[in-house]
Amino acid sequence: MPAHPRAAAAGTRERAAEILRRLPPTFTYSQGRSAGLDNRALYGLRDAGLIDPIGRGLYRRADAELVDPTLAEVAARAPAATLCLTSALAEHGLSDAIPPAPHLALPRGQRFPATDGPVSWHAFAPATFGLGRESFAVDSELRLGIYNEERTLVDAFRMRHVVGSDEAYEALRRWVRRRGSQPARLLDLAGHFPRTVTPIRRSLEVLL
């Protein structure tokens, strides 16, 4: 005897929910299909509030920890992306500014991915892209790059047309007051970007 339609539908939802529990917090359409979720199952999970679309072909489980959806989307689409400039300054406590869109860098030549959330993209030279690059956890499985304090300060001075001279100077002022800050290390890093050495050195002479 065939199953009652409601019972069959409930069974389908339960199977979809079981598959969902085996997927990472953020997963792509292709990952969902490979795990056994067809279009109908994905739409059903979405309509039931069990997953949230955070980008084209990208979903996040509703039971996952709360994260910035834009950063999660970027981390899933472009693992090399690195938080920089004002966004990195704010993360390091060197600025109180909150940019309307996160500043993220990729090596020059790499395509900037299309994202649902707003992003201020920057292309950095591949030869120096990795200098001062670290990473942080977006969630239990996704990581995103971030430049350390010294590299972020150097970038703020070499791209004063983006962040503003006042913000770059204020960030440096906060940094030099921190215990453990090493101006010599900062200048050594600035040496990889020759045009930044003089303005940083002059600012340090005023502040120290």
Your description of this structure?
With 208 residues, the protein is of the alpha/beta class. It is built from 10 helices and 8 strands. It has helices spanning 5-21, 29-35, 39-47, 69-77, 85-91, 149-158, 160-163, 165-176, 183-190, 197-207, and strands spanning 26-28, 51-55, 58-61, 82-83, 103-107, 120-124, 133-137, 143-147. Strands 6-5-4-8-7 form a 5-stranded mixed β-sheet. Strand 2 and strand 3 form a beta hairpin. Helix 6 (149-158) runs antiparallel to helix 8 (165-176). The longest helix has 17 residues, at 5-21. Mean pLDDT is 93; it is low at 1-9.
For the secondary structure, the number of strands is: 8
Order of helices and strands: HEHHEEHEHEEEEHHHHH
Main sheet characteristics: 5 strands, mixed
What is the first-to-last residue Cα distance? 85 Å
Shape: elongated
**What's the pLDDT, averaged over the residues?**
93
Strand order of the largest sheet: 6-5-4-8-7
Number of helices: 10
> Fraction of residues in helices?
40-55%
Structural class: alpha/beta
Q: What amount of the residues lies in strands?
A: 15-25%
CA-based gyration radius: 22 Å
The low-confidence parts are: 1-9
SSE order and pairing:
Blueprint: H1 5-21, E1 26-28, H2 29-35, H3 39-47, E2 51-55, E3 58-61, H4 69-77, E4 82-83, H5 85-91, E5 103-107, E6 120-124, E7 133-137, E8 143-147, H6 149-158, H7 160-163, H8 165-176, H9 183-190, H10 197-207
Parallel strand pairs: 4-8, 5-6
Antiparallel strand pairs: 1-3, 2-3, 4-5, 7-8
What labels describe this entry?
3-stranded antiparallel β-sheet, 8 strands, alpha/beta, 208 residues, 10 helices, disordered N terminus
